[in-house]
Amino acid sequence: MKHGGGYWITVATLIFVFTVTFHFLNKQRQAVAPLKDEGNTLTSVSLIARAYAQYNDGEWPALASTGNPFRLSPEVPPLGYTISSRFDHKTTGSVDALLLGRINNAKAYTLRSMAETVKGYFYLGYAVSNESELLALTVAVKQSAAHGGELPAPAGAGTLGLDRFFRLHGNLAETMAREGAGEKFLASARRIPVLIEKPKDGWSWVYFLDLHAERLPYPGEFPLTENCIKALAEAER
Amino acid sequence: MQEVPQLHPRYDWLDQARGLVVILLIVSMGTAEYSGDMVMGKAVLGSPMLNHGYDYYDGWPPIITFIDLGQALFVFMMGFVGYTAFTSRLRKRGKLSAALYGLRRVSLLYALAGIDSVLLNYLEHGEVRWAEFLYLGTFSCIALGTLAAFISIAIIANADRRILVAFALMLGHALLFESPRFDHREWYEDVLNLIRFPFGAAGLCIVAIAGTCFGQWYYSDLSNPTGAFKDRIVPISMYAMIGAFCMDWIQPGSHHDTTASLQLWSVAIGGFMLMMFYAFSLAGFRFPLLSSLGKNLLLMFAVGGIVLGIYMDLLPDALLISSPLLTLLLIGIVPIALLGILATILDRRGIMVRA
Known about the structure:
heterodimer; A: alpha+beta; 3-stranded antiparallel β-sheet; 39% helix; 19% strand; B: mainly alpha; two-stranded parallel ribbon; 13 helices; 2 strands
C-alpha cells in the first residue's frame, strides 16, 4: 500500500485520541460497576418476594408479625440463596445449602442465605404512594397484632387516600378500580415502593411495584424523605 | 423479487465465498436448535464450535465462536457485492435507478423482517416485536447494513477514504460501548436504566461499509485483480486482524452488540476468505455446491430460516440423542443437502432470485 504521510498521520491521530478517550471512559465504567452490583442485589432480593407472589395468586409476602415488621423474612418460602464459592470437601466452615450438579466441571457450589442481605432493606408489604400514607402505615402496623390482611387506617390516610391499607398485590390495579381509586393508582403505579435500601452515602436503591429499580438521592422525594426513613428505622428498634 | 438482466460480470470464486457464508448460517440453525443445557445435563447435539457461544453461556464477556461471525460476514459480503450492483446502476442507468435499486433491496429485507418479527411472532407468541423488526432482528440488521453501505458509497466515492471512515466509526462504536451511559445487552445492565443504543445494528452497518471498500478495490481494476488483493485486500485484512487482536483484550467481541473487535474480526476473516477463494480460482479448484448456494444467497438464507425450523421440529430428539451418526446425518448433512439441491436446480435453470 502506498499512501502519503498525511494518511498515516490521520490513522495515528485517530488511534491516539481513541486510546486516551477509551482510558477515561473505562475508568468511568469501572466506577459505576459497584452501583450495578448494588442494583442487582436489590433485584435479587426482590425475586424472593416476587417468587412468593407467583405462588400465592399475586399476593406479596405479609409483614413479619414478630421482630422487625418491615423486613422481608428470609424464612418465607421459597427461600432465597445466592451462589457462592465452589464446594470443597476440606472446608470446615458452615454451608447454608449446596447446589448439586455438573456445573463448570464442579460437583457442587455452596449457596449463601440472603438472610443477612435482606437486613439492609425495608420491605413495605402494603401499598403507599406518599409520605403521609407511609407514616400512617408505620403507626397502623405498630398498633396491629397481625399483618396478614388489610389494615385499618384513619379516614383518608390509607392506600391512595382510602380508609385501609391494601396488601401489595399483582392485581392491585383491579382492587383499586373496585374501590374507586383506579385513576389514582394509574397515576402513581410507578411510584409505589416495595423495597427500600437503607440509605448510605446519600443514596438508596428503591424497588417499585411495577418491578423496576431506581437509585435515588437521600434525603429526597418519597419514599426517601427523612421522615419516611426515620419512621421505618424506628419500627425496627 | 424479480429477475434482472446482468449489469456486471459474476465471479464464480465470489459465489463460492458467499456459498460458504450460507453454509455457516445453515449449520448454525441446526446447532442452535439443539444447544441443550450443559448445566442441567440436557444433551447438546452437534459441535459447540459450530454454534453461537451465547447458546452455552449468555453473559459478559461473551463466548465467541466462528459461527458468531456468520452474520457479520454475511453483511460484509453484501457490502462487497453491493458495491458493484449499486455503482453499475449508477453508471449505466443514473442516480434514480441506483436509488430505486437501493430502496427496493432495503424494502425487501424489511419485508422479510416484517414476516419474521411481526407476522410469525404474532402467530407463534401472540406479540409483535417492534424493536426486533426495526433494528434488533437479523433481517432488519442486514437491511440497515445494506442501506449504510449504499449511502456510504454515494457520500464517499474514494474507497481508501471510506475504509478510514469505517475504522473511525469502529473506534467511535467502541467508545460509545465503553461509555457507562449506554445500555449493553446483558440483563444486569438494565438496573441502571441506561440509554439504549442499537450497538448490534450500528456495528453491522460499519462492517457493510468496510465490505463496500473491498468491493471497490476489487472491481476498480479488473485487468489486475491480483493487484487489488496484494495492495489493498490482504494488507487491510491483516491490519484488521491486528486491530481485532488488540481490541479483543480491551473490549471483547460480542455477537449481539457487534463490538469493534467482532467488526474487525469480520473484516479480517472476510478479506482472507475472499483471498482464499480467489486463490482457489487461480489454481483451478472449485466447489460447485458453494457456487450454487452463493448465487442465491438471500433466498437460501430466507428459505433456510423458515423451512429448516419446521424440518427440525419434526425430528424426534430421543432418536438424535441415541446416535451421533444420525445427528450428523439429519442435522449436519440433510439441511445442507436439501438447500444444496434447491440451489443447484435454480442454478442449472439460470434462476437467480435477487432484490
